[in-house]
Amino acid sequence: MINESLPQSRLSRRGVLGLGAGLAALAGCRTQPKDPAPGSEPTARFVAPNYVPPDQVPGAMISDIDGVSPAYSQYPSEQAKSVTETPGSGAEVSTFQVLFQAPPPTNNPWLTEFERRLGAKINATFGAGDAYGQKVQTLMASGDLPDICFVERSAAPSVVKPMQQGAFTDLSELLAGSGIDAYPNLARLPTYAWKNSSINGRILGVPRALPLVNGVTMYRADWAADLGLAEPPKNAEEVKELLVGFTKGDHRGKSKGDCWGLATLGNGVSWAMEMFRVPNDWRLNDDGTLTNVIETDEYEAAINWLVELWKAGAFHPDAATLPTLDSQDLFMSGRIGLMPAGIAPHYRSMVPTLRKNDPSAEVVAVSPPGHDGGDPVVHQGGGYFGIAAIPSEVGKDQARLAELLRVINYWCAPFGSEEHTFINYGIEGRHFTYDDRGTPIAVDGDRPLTEVAGPSFLVQPLEAVFFFPGDDKAATEAQQAIAKAVPLSIENPVRSLISETDIRQSAALGQLTDDYLFGIITGRRPISQLAEWRERWRSRGGDTIRKEFEAGLA
């Protein structure tokens, strides 16, 4: 993904589900400099909470590859309790949560039942997804923080400085190692989610876990067969042939000029970066220095290939500006041949909608090949979306802190448990019914969204497992695709580090990248301007960001 670290104050539900996932390890062990670089903070040694793997239940497929999420072909018929004692003491628990639906009703039966189960009165403040960043900024400025705050720092960069200054309780010592045993549902969260959501080695909240690699590419195998390309492409030249063929071919009733290989430049960039083995934002060199992605030879080679791809006509004509939702709609209407996206949007909505619109469509998962026929790399993402953080003032009371962690522990109930079913599906009969296979199916109308999905969104690991009702094969296919990708995946070596200059300048540097990258690909700028682009990036903050990250890694 391009500009993955660019802060965004606007969030969307579909965008959340399409986020990438990943594992950031602090690489190298070098001498600590006498003084940290201005704008950086000393990095503590991260100590992970102990991890408890998922239970083996009927329909469960547990991979033996670290970082591959469990998959489920069916919903457990026996839903065990994951919480045996009431978490709360009867006191009020205030929360700040992001809201992707219409506001919940004042008299919400789901909330009433949730409060009964928790033993706590929930007093929720919501920040709408399209105004989340501003809401967080206002909340932090007020100094009056709720007991549990949903914090997604990439969407609200203003929160990072207060986090570094101690606005939220440091849970590192409390939850590290066997400390997590008091909260067994939290112990089931993957280690990479804890590590990547930490800041400079410190655990400041409980993460909402996502898969380690959270993307998959679907392509029209039926279109490829019509072109005489029955096998997936094995190198960059074959990918180009396939994508150009998708644009110029005659596809079963679709008129020429109405279909394209790729919808957006971003989709092409994501494939090119992995085919040409481009680093994941930064490369950590053997001497402890960092090289930014745009400074590498691999990046230049990938751009040259994208220039050829644009000239050959593989992209939608509006690829430089086409919104993500519009590109997904084009795919679902049968007009795009190759579509990278998040696992959840593909298997939960995009592929089912395409097959509903065109039952004969043959769409399968495909991986980018190495440009030269070898292996590609796969870029890991964050592996989480936001954390549930407890303000430091609240956390000073150890009994209260333990109570709030018990509430969060309930919220993090594992897949198929009684608590998971209630939190994510609601009350049987009012919000969902079971089909003949025992799968919870939402009832018609707005109740499942406004009464359950909206107010329940916090840190439940809903997207951290593969389960797609209505498609028996989807969970297996998704898991197999990720099992193939994870061994090839590479981390961003500065994932959990903070650079103050990066926070201040990332929007401007992201725009600089868009201007040059899209300009070069589409022919508005010559490839020779890459040198100018690199120099401007360095002089406008890139070199300072590098130094701050290097100090954090030291």
UniProtKB/TrEMBL annotation:
GO cellular component: cell envelope
Annotated keywords: Signal, Transport
Database matches in Pfam families: SBP_bac_8
UniProt organism field: Microlunatus parietis
Listed InterPro entries: Bact_solute-bd_prot1 (IPR050490), SBP (IPR006059)
Family: Belongs to the bacterial solute-binding protein 1 family.
Protein name: Putative aldouronate transport system substrate-binding protein
Subcellular compartments: Cell envelope
